[in-house]
Write a structure and sequence with these properties.
seven-stranded mixed β-sheet, 5 helices, single chain, 12 strands, SH3 type barrels, BirA Bifunctional Protein, domain 2, 251 residues, binds biotin, alpha+beta
Length: 251
């Protein structure tokens, strides 16, 4: 895949820039990168704090897919970001359903996938990645929940090297995906919270308690409740209730 990089200094959100370019018929592979964002956003309209030091990018992809496969793009970007953290900084991150990267239970990165559709097919997807590279959260209200490559390793990392390593990994994985290899197995291998007792909060539904037993190829979480009924969760907030039990086999 050919990438076209647009580098910006300070913008409200790279997602908006990428979406505007996509609506003007920009080609797949457009990458909008900003040094900082003043209105970075995450899933569920949460704020994504984006001072200089982090990697903030939005990528335009146009796979000719049904909408229900869109979560595979989130998986792809998460896996490519994990590879970049490993290759550049030797940091082993793991994915958390549906869109986070964790290092030892602290958030290292988040992925935000925003879609436009033609009926039930994807017109395009803007996949945003916020990766905490040189951010310092020690004196921040996020200190208990967030971390960065610099906080993990004690040294600063070159943002361009992280970006280029990420894009190379993404291009490889996107090619394999287009050849028919689903990323869901690699993504599920170390996925939090598989094998754990969870509580799921969903809009308009009572809280669901049960065991996270697997994911579907489209990325929905499979949760088995105490009556043994399996629920397929497409969106929601998942918190962990109890230590791990091994459900991974067969998931
Ligand atoms: C989340 O954790 O909910 C997802 C966070 C995604 C943040 C990235 S930073 C680059 C891009 N621009 C945004 O406004 N958000 C995404």
């Amino acid at each position: 895949m050919q990438f076209t990089r647009i580098r910006l200094y300070r913008v409200p959100s790279t997602q908006d820039w990428a979406r505007d370019w996509a609506r003007m018929a920009a080609r797949e592979g457009l990458v909008v990168v900003a040094r900082e964002q003043t209105a970075g956003r995450g899933r569920l309209a949460r704020r994504w704090v984006s001072p200089p030091g982090g990697l903030y990018l939005s990528l335009l992809l146009r796979p000719d897919w049904p909408l229900r496969r869109a979560q595979q793009l989130t998986m792809l970007v998460s896996l490519a970001a994990i590879e970049a953290c490993r290759e550049v900084a030797r940091v082993e991150a793991r994915p958390k359903w549906p869109n986070d990267l964790l290092w030892q239970d602290k958030k290292l990165a988040g992925v935000l996938t925003e879609l436009e559709s033609n009926g039930d097919r994807l017109a395009f997807a803007i996949i945003g990645l916020g990766l905490n590279v040189n951010n310092d959260f020690t004196a921040s209200p996020l200190a208990a929940t967030a971390t960065s490559l610099r906080m993990v390793t004690g040294q600063s990392w070159d943002l361009d090297e992280v970006l280029e390593t990420f894009l190379a990994a993404l291009a490889r994985r996107y090619q394999r995906l287009r050849e028919g290899e689903s990323p869901h197995r690699a993504w599920a291998e170390h996925l939090e919270p598989l094998g754990r007792r969870v509580q799921v909060l969903r809009q308009g539904a009572p809280p669901l308690r049960g065991w996270a037993v697997g994911v579907t190829p489209q990325g929905a979480l499979r949760v088995k409740d105490d009556a043994g009924v399996e629920h397929v969760i497409w969106a929601g907030d998942v918190s962990i209730e109890k230590p791990r039990r091994d459900f991974r086999r067969g998931s």
